[in-house]
Design a protein that fits this description.
103 residues, 3-stranded antiparallel beta sheet, 6 strands, 22% helix, globular
């Protein structure tokens, strides 16, 4: 196998866990370690709830100044905010943080 093909194959295999581990809702337990706690942007916007409690309320901020922040509840683990039903039609996500609200 040539170097170029070998590198492409290795790169594809390394990216595989990110493609299959994260779904529209939450990620599997094995992929949670790939994300830091809190907000991350890895193409899509993600929130990893790794603190205490099963659910946490988060505030999601948007890039466009005319978009109001939205609060949603997310479960323990990684949630894809870019595909979350409660955020559709809101524009590009800028940041998200736990807001201490109840779920």
């Amino acid at each position: 196998m040539g170097k170029t093909i070998g590198r492409a194959l290795v790169g594809s295999l390394l990216a595989l866990p990110l493609m299959v581990g994260v779904t529209a809702g939450t990620a599997s337990a094995a992929s949670v370690a790939d994300y830091k706690c809190g907000y991350s942007r890895l193409g899509d916007a993600y929130y990893n709830h790794c603190g205490p409690g099963w659910m946490v309320s988060i505030t999601v901020e948007f890039v466009a100044p005319w978009e109001d922040d939205r609060s949603i509840c997310v479960a323990q683990g990684v949630t894809n905010l870019s595909t979350h039903g409660g955020l559709q039609g809101s524009g590009m996500i800028d940041f998200a943080y736990a807001d201490g609200g109840g779920c």
